[in-house]
Structures are given as C-alpha cells and as structure tokens.
Write a structure and sequence with these properties.
The protein is an all-alpha fold. The protein has helices at residues 2-28, 39-80, 86-100, 111-148, 155-195, 200-205, 228-259, 262-273, 280-302, 311-336, 339-347, 352-380, 384-389, 407-415, 421-457, and strands spanning 215-216, 219-220. It folds into two domains: 2-153, no CATH class; 224-457, Orthogonal Bundle (MetI-like fold), CATH 1.10.3720. Strand 1 (215-216) and strand 2 (219-220) form a beta hairpin.
Length: 458
Amino acid sequence: MIATTFLAVFAIAALAFLVSRRRAVMIGGDTPAQLHSRPSQHGSLAAMWALIAGWGVLILGITLWVAVENATLAGLISDRAPELNAIERELVLSDARALASGGITSRSGDLRTEVAAAVVAQETIRVRTTVVLALVLSVLAGWNIYRQIAKPFRARNRSERLITYVLMAAAAVAIVTTVGIVLSLISETLGFFANLDWRIDKFLFGANWTPLSGIHDGVIDPDRVGALPLFIGTLLITLIAMLVAVPVGLFSAIYLSDFAGPRLRATAKPMLEILAGIPTVVYGFFAAITVAPWLRRMGEATGIDIASESALAAGIVMGIMIIPFISSLSDDVINAVPQSLRDGSYALGATKAETVRQVVLPAALPGIVSAVLLGISRAVGETMIVVMAAGQGANLTVNPLEAVTTVTVQIVMLITGDTEATVAAGPAFALGFSLFCMTLGMNIIAQRVVRKYREQYD
C-alpha cells in the first residue's frame, strides 16, 4: 500500500502541474507577457509542493511510527516475559514480525502470537493513517499554489528557492549521516577500550589476534586483541595491489588519451572498463582457483615455497580489479588538460613523449593523485578477494608469499560469528575506527599534495 501511495502522490503532483499550468495560461490570456513567471513554472511549483508534502509525510510517518511501534512492542514483551534479556526480546520481536507477515507459524497462546497480533493492529493503524494524511496534504499543497496563481505571482522565484532548500536538505542529510557514522564508531570504540582498561597499546602493537577466545564474563582479554597482524596484512595486500594497478592503469590512460587513435580508443576503453563491472566474488574465485594454484606451481618449479593462500595472489587480483578505476579517472583528468599546453610544448620542439612527461602529467597530477587514492581506498576496503585468496588467520609477516588477513575480513568474521553481538561489536568497531583513521590520514596527505601542485599549475 505504501508503494501505491508513492505513485498516487506522483499522480497528484502531475495533475497539479497540468491544472496549474492551464490556469496560468488562462490568466495570461492574449498577453502572457504580463505574467511574472511562465505557465510551466507555475505548474512546476505546484507539483513540487505536492510531492514534498505527500512523500515527506510518508517518509516521516514510516520513520516515526516504526520507532513508536518498536518501543510499544518492547514494553509489551517486557511486561509479559520480564525474565528475557535484550537479545531474547529482539528475537521474540523478530519472530513476531515474521509471524505477522505469514513467514512462520506459531502455536496458540505463545508470546510471539500475542506480539504478532499487536504488530498487525499497529501496522494497520499506521499504514491507513499515513496514507490518508499523505494524500490529503499532497492535494492541499497543490491546491494552495493553484489558488495563488495570478499575474504578479512570483512562481519562478519561489520554485528556485524551493529547489535550493531541497538541495540544502540533501546536503544536510549526507553530512548528518557522515557525522552519525563517525560518532557511532567513536562511541563503540571508546567503550571497547574502556573494557580493556585503556590498554590501547595492546590493540595497536600486539601480535596476538584472538579476541573471541579470551572472553571471561563478557570481558575481553587485552593480550588477545593485538591488531598489528591485521594492519600489516592490509597494508601488504594494498601495496601489492597498487604496484599492479597504478602502472598499468596510468600507462593505459596515457596511451589511450595521447597516443591511441580514435577508433582504437573507442574500442579499448569500454573493454577496459568492463573489469569494473565484474563482481568481487568472481575476482575471488579467479584468485583462489586460477592465480593462487598457478603461483604455487611456479614456486615449486623454481624452488620457492608459496602458500596456497598468499598475499601475493590476493594483491595481484585486487590490482587487476582496481585497474579500471585508476585508468578511467586518470584518462578523464589527462584529457581535461588544456590543449594549449600541449601545443605550446610542441611549438618549443618537444616530442609527444616529452610533452606528456614534462607538461601533461604534472598538470594532471592532482587528479591522478585522487585516482590513486580512490584505488587505495578500494583496496583497503576489499573483503571477498582476501577471504578467498589470502586466508583468515592473523599472521604477522611481511612476506607476500605467506597467508595473511586484513581488517575488513576480521570485521566480517566478528559480526557473523556465534558470539553475543554486544561482545563481538567492540573489536569490530575498534577495527572499523582504525580503518577510518587510516583512510582519513591518506586523504589528508593526498589533499596536501593536490593543493601544492594545483597552486603551481592553475
């Protein structure tokens, strides 16, 4: 019903546009120049207000009602079964929702049945109230603009101001979401370190990572949360990936932008960018089934011991995955360098290779640094390839021929394990905050490099 209401609000907005535009045309008559705004601008203003009113009520109604419903149902479960802990109450509520939707069955008299009945009752009230209110307010908002249409009515100014407010709201949502994520990371991380008696050094420099095996009464042993092997493994695989992706991606971008002909470029660039659309699980299978066995056979042939799951295999395949990101972005940046710089270099007698090396690349360096940074962030956050090709054990080594693990892999293992979520969330959030700090530091360094060279070439 909610989806149907969204479409109904859109239909009301379309109708508001048509009738408001027609009214503006009729008011303008034979002298439409007397209208302050065009008829389409009157219609657009009515349609936008109808959409904002209707869709806004639907979104706010769903959000607020869900919060109220969760609080009400949680109180009902606590009253009926006060002996249940927080996790068990969440499970009862989850089963009740599934029961209400017909996903599972339950015997009569069960607590879940009673909660499911409350879910159905509240859902019915919530949906009907929200739908009626959204439709009514959408019609009223459109009608309010319709009745104000007149020759001096400033529909253009109002519509532009409304669009500005909508864009500001979208930007505010992005900022608030970012702040919320960071605050949640900081809050959970501080709680985790508080449980460790603020032994942050044990976390940053310890070599033993077995957090879930040292739990006593919900408290994690500080000697078992040494994340140094995870950090080293993440940086090792990222380094190998960038050693593959940066040269290949950058050289291919240079060739396609300055050396390749139009026909070759039109064919090669789309084929190169196909790599960006391949799912990471496919890359993981490719690394585990093809690349890793091939590397092991090559090692056996040359007398080098290469593990079946190695950082080298994961890094190589991850680098292949990142090539289109660096290549495509670098190609766009290089093409954005003004042709006048190239022409001036040619006029001074420089060859094409010298022009690219001494003029084009320095001018495009800020964008290239941004492309490389995006590739590093992509490598640091990759999980599936590492799980399938590099292993899951925390091994403190810088040897690319051995098995290692990364921060993201351990976060997934902690969250998806059988340990109570409140206990496993601490190490997971601490790792996530550490990863956030790593990427933030790389961004700051990259911004300084970009600022330095941008001042020189702007």
